[in-house]
Amino acid sequence: MNEASGSRIMQGLANRYYDNQEDFLIERKKIFAPMWVCIGFASDAPLPGHVYPLEFMELPLIIVRDHDNAIYVFHNVCRHRGHVLVTKSGELDSVLRCPYHSWTYALNGSLIRTPHIGGLGVHDVEGFNRDEAGLIPINCHIWNDLLFVNLDGSAHSFDKFIQPLEERWARLWGVSGSDELRLKKDDRSICFDVDVNWKLAIENYLEAYHLPTVHSELNRVSPMQDHEIQVSEQFAGQVSHCYQLGAGHDHRLPIFPDWPSTLLEEADYPVLFPNTLLGLQADHLFVMVVIPIHFNQIREETRLYFVGEQSLGRNYDALRREQGIFWTRVFEEDISVVKGMQQGRASVGFDGGILSPVQDRATQAFHAWVSTRLGI
Q1: Contact, 240 vs 247, CB < 8 A?
Q2: Binning pLDDT at 50, 70 and 90, where does residue 310 land?
Q3: Residue 207 in contact with residue 224, Cβ under 8 Å?
Q4: How confident is the model at residue 189 (pLDDT cuts 50, 70, 90)?
């Protein structure tokens, strides 16, 4: 990244960091593996015996909830020949069985059966220790239904990682706000598969500059000029000072009990680096996890959480549905612009771009964060 002489105009990350597998895998090693990153939601494996496979940065992973209700994340490959164990989410009987040679694992990852490993009818061999051949686990931690992993096991404690965000939000939802979050699984699901590099989705969320052009409806109720850019070491984004509870209707969703009455119009929209997009309002929280699959492919998984058990009642069905439809429309509007930027990364007439010192300040912070971790 280069800074123009005598100004705060910045050049963005070069095209190479968006358009090839080699740099993508370097990012996996240097950015994603050493820290806590969100891969999805614990509620995707909602009940004991449920599994949820996913691909994350070209790694097949699996989320497993065992019969003690504990959540595990494993590399989703058999230790025998590397065959993927599970391809569909849902409920298993009680074990994970490889479809190739039927090596079988308990839900806690331990290897429990190796059929015919020593010949027909011989299920054990001398010198082979099943205790050392279980599924490879990945450190994981659940925070308000968000499932974080540390791929290489080198990260500091999760509590230390999440503390800055918790302290930031304590002034809004109080010390117990997260205890009020409720998810209704049969509400509208928001999920998009988009053929772009993961960083473009992050950069788009970080700025309000595009609101008048891309989000005309959103800009009417939350105009660009009422958004304040904020930057921190682990996250960056915007604060809106004009959130409308109930979109101006008398009937509205329940709000967090400790939310200050003077801040009901304030909403916080940070990106928790590297890939978790958050939107905290007085009456709900949305979370979009940008899941990098390949260098030019992501999945955007979004959940909406409302406040307290009463918010899930039938009398609030229409309001929850309306909120889900609104955010779905907003996120859909972003798809064409991030795809347009991905296409532009193939051009020799572009290599990083010119970042506005005012409108793109959060994007500058993100690019600096990425650059530091990549050593560029």
Answers
A1: no
A2: very high
A3: no
A4: confident
In the block, which residue shows the tokens 């500058």?
Answer: 364
Residue 120 identity (one-letter amino acid): L
Q: Domain 174-374 adopts which CATH fold? A: Naphthalene 1,2-dioxygenase Alpha Subunit; Chain A, domain 1 (3.90.380)
Say how far apart CA 55 and CA 376 lie, in whole Å. Answer: 27
Rounded distance between C-alpha atoms, residue 353 and residue 36, angstroms:
30
Q: Answer for the pair 39, 282: CB distance below 8 angstroms, yes or no.
A: no
Least confident of 110-114, 225-229, 246-250: 246-250
- In this prediction, what percent of the chain has a pLDDT beyond 70? 94
Q: Is the peptide bond before 274 cis (omega within 30 degrees of 0)?
A: yes
> Which residue, among 268, 270, 266, has the nearest Cα to 205 in the 3D structure?
270
Would you call 26 helix, strand, or coil by DSSP? helix
**CATH fit for domain 37-141, picks 3.40.720.10, 3.40.50.2300, 2.102.10.10, 1.10.8.50:** 2.102.10.10
Strand 267-272 vs strand 276-281: parallel, antiparallel, or unpaired?
Answer: antiparallel
CA 363 – CA 24 distance, rounded (Å): 19
CA 68, distance to chain mean position in Å, is 26
Q: Give the contacts of 72 (CB within 8 A, at least 6 positions apart).
A: 63, 64, 65, 66, 107, 108, 109, 137, 140
Cα–Cα distance measured from residue 1 to residue 374, given in angstroms and rounded to the nearest whole number:
12
